[in-house]
């Protein structure tokens, strides 16, 4: 699967999918301010009010190998991000997907996660893992669509999941 290019959201909008880069700091910051407090909390497990410049720089400066992030762009604005961070000396990578509230339930998160899985496989990763809050049903659904062999454990109010990757993801 070619993971870059265009995708069509369920609402018919055409989005460009590309790797994130250092010039995306302001776009990512603008996206953050369009997220609801619930979406921010589900992504960061914390009620972050304002992203620090250091955090934004970290998220936009990836090596496109052990750390990757794909963005979905509409016009000149990032509306979704899917990223992985590889674990040192491991074939495992932590995944996170964030979709701006106005763009949720349009298939964007699933499409980006599938594209990111293909990219991760090309870079030698075999499994994604992630943590999510118990009430985040959309993320649990995304996990099962991404990998039918996914395993999920519940402990202390959060789920931890491992999703083996395959070319059919």
Q: Overview of this structure, please?
A:
- By secondary structure, the protein is α+β, with helices and mostly antiparallel strands.
- It has one domain: Aminopeptidase (3-Layer(aba) Sandwich), CATH 3.40.630.30.
- It has helices at 25-34, 37-44, 53-60, 108-122, 137-146; strands at 5-8, 14-19, 67-74, 77-86, 92-99, 127-133, 151-155, 158-164.
- An 8-stranded mixed sheet has the order 1-2-3-4-5-6-8-7, sandwiched between helices.
- Helix 1 (25-34) packs across helix 3 (53-60).
- The longest helix is centred in the last third of the chain and has 15 residues, at 108-122.
- The radius of gyration is 15 Å and the shape is globular.
């Amino acid at each position: 699967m070619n993971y870059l290019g265009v995708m069509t959201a369920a609402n018919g909008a055409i989005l460009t999918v590309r790797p994130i880069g250092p010039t995306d700091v302001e776009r990512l910051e603008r996206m953050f301010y369009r997220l609801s407090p619930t979406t921010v909390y589900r992504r960061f497990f914390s009620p972050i009010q304002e992203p620090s410049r250091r955090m934004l720089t970290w998220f936009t400066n990836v090596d496109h190998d052990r750390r990757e992030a794909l963005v979905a762009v509409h016009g000149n604005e990032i509306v979704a991000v899917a990223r992985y961070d590889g674990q040192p000396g491991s074939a495992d990578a932590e995944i996170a997907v964030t979709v701006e509230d106005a763009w949720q339930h349009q298939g964007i998160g699933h499409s980006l996660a599938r594209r990111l899985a293909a990219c991760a496989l090309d870079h030698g990763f075999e499994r994604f893992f992630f943590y999510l809050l118990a009430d985040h049903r959309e993320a649990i659904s995304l996990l099962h669509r991404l990998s039918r062999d996914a395993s999920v454990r519940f402990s202390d109010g959060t789920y931890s999941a491992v999703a083996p990757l395959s070319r059919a993801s």
